[in-house]
Structure formats: C-alpha cells, structure tokens
Amino acid sequence: MGYFKNVESYDDLKNQYKKLLKANHPDNGGDDEVMKEINVEYDALFAIWKDKAARGNTLNEEEKEETAQSTRRQFYTDFGWEGSNHNWDRSLKDVAKIVRAYVKEKYPTYKFSVRTSYASMCQELHVELKESPIEVYKTVDELTDEDKYDFVRKANRNDYWSLSCWNDEEFKEEYNRITSEHGSFYKIMNEATKSVIEDVDNFVKSYNYEDCDGMIDYFHVDFYYFGCAENNGMNIKVVPRTPRIKNNDAGLTRNGAAPAPGQDAQKQPEQLDAENSCETSREAETVAADSFQEEKSGYTYTITQGQDTRDGSDLWVVRIEESLDKQSYIRENMKMHDMDAYYSRFLHGFIFRYNPTDALAARNAQQHEQPSGVIQNSERHRGR
After folding, report:
1. What backbone torsions phi and psi does residue 141 show, to the nearest 5 degrees?
2. Domain residue ranges in the chain
3. What is the reported pTM?
C-alpha cells in the first residue's frame, strides 16, 4: 500500500486516514486525485481490519455499525460534525420552512421569528425566540447554589460584582442591583425556557454541517447559526397565551354538535393554531380534541380527549357548562381533586389523566342515592 504504513489495528488505520486527510485535503492545497487514491486504499484496508477487530471481539456497538464511507467523512478539523438531517442539496430557504413549521407545531404559545440572510461567501439562518407565555428567568429566591456561582462569575467577569463576602440577604441586594442596572443578560433562565431553547437549537443544528477551527482560521459551514436566544434571551417578551384546542372532526363544534347552517366548521376557534407559540407549564396542555357532551343530573360536562404535547400521553379536559358561583366552584373543585384532576386556567377545565366519563356518571348516581344532608356534611368536612 502506498499511503498507509505499518497498520497495527483497526483504530490505527482510522487514525492514519485522519492524518492523511489533513495533509492532502483539497481545502488545504491538496490534490483531488491523490485524495481519491487515499480513499480507494482506505476502503480496501477498512474491510480487512474491521473483520480482524470483529473476530478479536474488540469492536464496541458503535464501531460495529461503521462503514468505510461513514468513517471517512471529509472533515478537515478535529471539531467537524454533520447533523443527522443535513443534506447539501437542501436550500437554506427550505431549512427555514422546516424550522418555521416545527416551532409553530410544537410550541404554539411561543412566538418565533425565522428568517435567512446571505452574503457573498456565506449564508445565515436567524431563529429568534421573541415571546414566551411564561416567565423566562428564575427569581432570586429560586436560584440554586450553582446558579449563584454562575451569576457571580459572570458579573465578576465584567467587574459588576462589588462584594468580597456576603450572606443571603446581601446576595439578593447585589443581584437585584446588577440585574436592574445591566438587564436580563445576567439573569438565570428557568428550566422550562432552557428546555425549549435547547430543543429548537438542536433541531436547527440537525440540518447543518460545520467543520471549523479558529486556531488555524478555518471555517466551513453549510450555514451560520448562533442560537434562538442570543444574549441570554434578554429581548424575549413575556406574553401569556392560551393554547387553542383543535377539533379533529370537522363536522362537530366544540360541544359535539353539528355546525349551524352556513357555518364553516374549519373556522371554529378551537380548530385554529395559535401562531408561533408553545406550552410548557403544567396547565398549558394543547389538546387535539375528540369532543362529546355528557348530560349529568347535577351539571352538564363537556369532555374533550386529547394529548399532552410534552410527552404524547393521553389527557381529558372536563368543562362545566353551567355558571358556578364561588362556593359551588370550590365544592366542585374539591370533588375533582378527589378524582385526581386539577383545574387548568388556560383551558378553563379540569385535567384528567384517564377517561373520567364512567367516574363522573358513577359519582352523580351515588349523590342521587344519598340524602342531600349527607352530601352537605361530606362537603363541609372536605372544606375543613
């Protein structure tokens, strides 16, 4: 073999190839024909040495799936990577459309801006989280010891931290002073916001290719991308939004009734997407609905079945059609709580993790079999 010398193992073969790639890569002045010869030689040796490693039982699970083509990816630097969805034939505008559809579908109560820009030698994808339905940052009382350490280190780096030692109250005063004077750049994001940002950033990166090393002034990317929350998200506005319920059955209204003559079922409010937004809080489940109405002797319940967008699990939203006064609501809330439900102020109903149809019917039937005084005593006991 002309290029690979004294190969000792499967790993040694791959390491030699990497060195030859750096020395002969066309981007570094190498010759295309020489690189082709190296690749041909590598492909021949790869099959031999992988077979030896397999017979010696020295391959890990990832190496068992490797091929010559997958291991000779054309990275010039040690830091190169390619996203799982990357395709050189896909335009940046197509990537932007995919990202726009992704954030709109997965995060309907968040607002994102997605746009592209171009220069003579590069292109950039701009994804910006502009509005959040929940608070973006932790309060000072929610900070962990690690959060406090990160905050002090960041503030010290810019000579804003003025204390040499401090107690909790002094830390709080200094924290409030710095964030008041210098903005949200120094605040600590809460976990819900960080999870949304990380998910969107990882999704975008899955469509990118990057092979860069600033130490040698080498930069090769499909497109530049700097994250959807630059400067620690300091420009994100908090705008509470209620996720809409989409009715899968175009022939039904929210309560399961047919639409009125001339009414377009496709334009029901429950069937409209809340543009550019996302739910993350416990009370903000977006539901794809299959609605029907249960007539109860006490109240009329509308039960809507759907899915929690966070994990795909089933849930049911139970709404009371009648208007309740304060005391009636408190009593009903306690009963629902006893059935492992909680009230969602976003969806204006009680959230169940199981189908409550039979349980609600049984509860109302049981109430009618008992004297009203017993029910009242039971309710007063629960109230205490």
Report:
1. -75, -15
2. 10-74, 92-238, 246-272+280-383
3. 0.53
